[in-house]
């Protein structure tokens, strides 16, 4: 298992993520399609926020089940929080483009049809 440092563009939102990343999810829902992120899902405990939680701006839509966090300063959305639909366990969806130490070219990219959900 690896540890990654992640952040928004300006660094106002910074975090550490512990986990194994070998696949990126490319979702086509209305938000992801516009945002252009590549996602990976982890238990919420795998992400440690290194900046004040009060610095997060949050957006929800559709069923309001996922809290999409973004930076008030630079606008970048590094991660979202919600619950695993199967177990109810807290999880995060991390925008892998916000992990500068991760080689995106080495990942398998899987398309996800979020637009149909």
In short:
The chain has one domain: Metal Binding Protein, Guanine Nucleotide Exchange Factor, Chain A (Beta Complex), CATH 2.170.150. The chain has 1 helix and 10 strands.
Layout of secondary structure:
Layout: E1 2-7, E2 14-19, E3 23-27, H1 30-35, E4 39-43, E5 47-49, E6 56-59, E7 67-71, E8 79-83, E9 90-95, E10 108-112
Parallel strand pairs: 3-10
Antiparallel strand pairs: 1-2, 2-5, 4-9, 6-7, 7-8, 8-9
Q: Your description of this structure?
A:
By secondary structure, the chain is mainly β. The chain has one domain (2-111): Metal Binding Protein, Guanine Nucleotide Exchange Factor, Chain A (Beta Complex), CATH 2.170.150. Helices cover 5% and strands 43% of the residues. The chain is built from 1 helix and 10 strands; from the N terminus they run βββαβββββββ. A 5-stranded antiparallel β-sheet has the order 4-9-8-7-6, with no helix packed on it. A 3-stranded antiparallel β-sheet has the order 1-2-5, with no helix packed on it. Strands 3-10 form a two-stranded parallel sheet. Strand 8 (79-83) and strand 9 (90-95) form a beta hairpin. The chain is globular, with a radius of gyration of 13 Å. The termini are far apart.
């Amino acid at each position: 298992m690896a540890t990654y440092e992640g952040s928004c563009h300006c660094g106002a939102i910074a975090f550490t993520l512990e986990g194994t990343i070998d696949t990126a999810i490319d979702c086509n829902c209305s938000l992801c399609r516009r945002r252009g992120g590549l996602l990976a899902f982890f238990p919420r405990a795998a992400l440690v926020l290194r900046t004040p939680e009060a610095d997060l701006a949050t957006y929800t839509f559709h069923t309001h089940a996922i809290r999409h966090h973004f930076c008030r300063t630079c606008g970048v959305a590094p991660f979202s929080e919600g619950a695993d639909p199967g177990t109810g366990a807290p999880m995060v969806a991390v925008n892998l483009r916000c992990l500068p130490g991760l080689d995106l070219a080495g990942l398998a990219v899987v398309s996800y049809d979020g637009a149909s959900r």
